[in-house]
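Notes from hallway chat w/ T.B., transcribed later so I don't forget. T.B. wanted the structure written out for a chain they're using in a teaching module, and asked if we could keep both sequence and structure tokens in one place. Agreed to drop them here.
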Amino acid sequence: MVMKKTDSHNASATRRGRAWRNDACPACGTTMVERRGRLRLPVNGDDMSVPSAFHLRCPKCAEIVLRFEDARRRVGGEAISLYCRKHRLLSADAE
């Protein structure tokens, strides 16, 4: 048996499937567009509607992707704040 030495970066990309650009839709590969709009996020079992959340949306298949920082700080923090106001809580641990 002869073993070939392969570049680990290329081998892992092949195993995962296609390699998309950073701004490409993970579902169809179309370039995504940054939007600001209402998103729903679960907080302790309640669906909280965040009114003006930044996100990426695919113009072809309508897939929505959140950047890590947008999801964690902005959208997640706003959802927790809305949850606290809804349930009349004084504070919450956002992180």
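Follow-up for T.B.: DSSP finds two helices and three strands in the chain. Might be a good example for the class.
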